[in-house]
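Handout, section 4.2: multi-component inputs.
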Amino acid sequence: MVDNILAISDLTLRYGDQTALNGISFEVPRFEIFSIIGPTQSGKSSLLRILNRTIDFNADARVSGSVLLDGEQVLTTPHVHDLRRKVGMVAPLPVGLPLSIYDNVAFAPRLAGVSKRADLDGLVESCLRQAALWDEVKDRLDQLGTRLSGGQQQRLTIARALSHTPDLLCLDEFSIAIDPVTTMRIEEVLRELKTKLTIILVTNLIQQARRLSDRTLFLWNGSIIEQGTTEAMFSDHPANSLTYDYIRGAFG
Amino acid sequence: MKPALAPSPTTPRFRETPAIARRHRQEVIARRLLGTTLILSLVPLFAILIYLVWQAAPVLSWGFLVESPRDGMRSGGLWPALLGTLYLVGASLAAATPVGVLAAVYLNEYARPGRFSRLVSLAVINLAGVPSIVHALFGLGAFVAFAGFGRSILAASLTLAVMSLPVIIASTTEALKSVPQSFREASWNLGATRWQTTRHIVLPNALPGIFTGIILMVSRTAGETAPVLFTGAVFYKSIAGGDLFAYSLLDQCMALSVHLFTVSTQVPNVSDALPYAIAVVLVATVLGVNALSIALRVYLRSRKNW
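Output:
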């Protein structure tokens, strides 16, 4: 029996009369990297916004179905802010909050009531180390996070997402605004993090999904075309010919 | 033999065709026209300032600022009016700022976008366009008569506060909108509540804009005449010159704008320079506040975090 951290069944999302997700069901096993690939507008980012309920901020969105995170109902839980702390989110374009590097990482712990300087110092260092940023910024932690380069900022947002010790880390096209070398460094970071938490990777880079993930899900127009182990999906004979065509670059 | 296609050294490379010449002429005309309009808009400002100071010069002195009027307003200073204006503006700000800023925060950060919030925004914008004399009548009815404050600094400054509320709400809304939405989303993703996001991320970054709006409002309320004339300002009030705490909130007071009006129209045999001197003090107060707002904005911008 596989230990699933996330179990989604019959999840439907509508914006007004437009259907963004069409009754999808899948499970994510613990301590794996799970890739979601698919062209834009296929509903990948919306799916992530459902996982931490930031979809609530969109007034037209109507969600139905069931999302179980660690056995808890995501869609109906009254503890939304606790839920968001269990899910780390990294956005496509790095958004450094307009605070110092230190305060960026200490933001979430402080909200949760951690106020002792020594505790915060330790937390900030360990998060920055895990995101492979510590050595570059340890001498200028009071500098503005927004002044870092794009690649450093993206690692800062990863450190920040780790600061509230999530069980699930979601990355939405994290490499869209950064160079290949930094991308490889972050991929290395993700491989290491996999031992401690589960990672959902939404990506347009098919080869990135192939390099990193244990399982892959191909989402298209709000429906799941195919899902399975990355090995099977990227083999010469995936179950669905659309998958074959998309992975080979015939469309999308 | 050289190839025939090569241009001879004397052939001009960039020839001025009629079309290009016409464009050059249009460019020159446009630049001169735009420059002239700029000068035209600056001339009245400086003309007013220079004319005022020149006319007022015989009366202007430190004593004029801190003394009470004498001889039925014909000599002495304008301290009661200056102090009255400061009280009115200060009290109206104290009432309007918290309400206006927090209302704008609610409208922007909490209210669900929809017909209701659009309606409220529209009402706020239209309220900002209501003439001040209408606010004056409202203040007379609501604060002087109904609430029983009588004609007093309290009633007058509340009237001014009601008048400045929509402007403060509008300027605060602009300031809040200038904070990128991505900051809010990043904060929500970290498990912050709306209030934590507003308090730690949105408000600190909207502060320069909010301050600018408030201080510009000060310069507008300082010059208002009708609302204070209806609700609390008087022709003459005897207080000690230079005393900063001469008024209480339930007193009536003098105000610069009303003082200027009465001295120039109601008092016979006033020296020519006196009204101009009052005007200079009023304009200097307003310009001083504006300068403060610009300095504050420059300072806060220099600390801008993104």
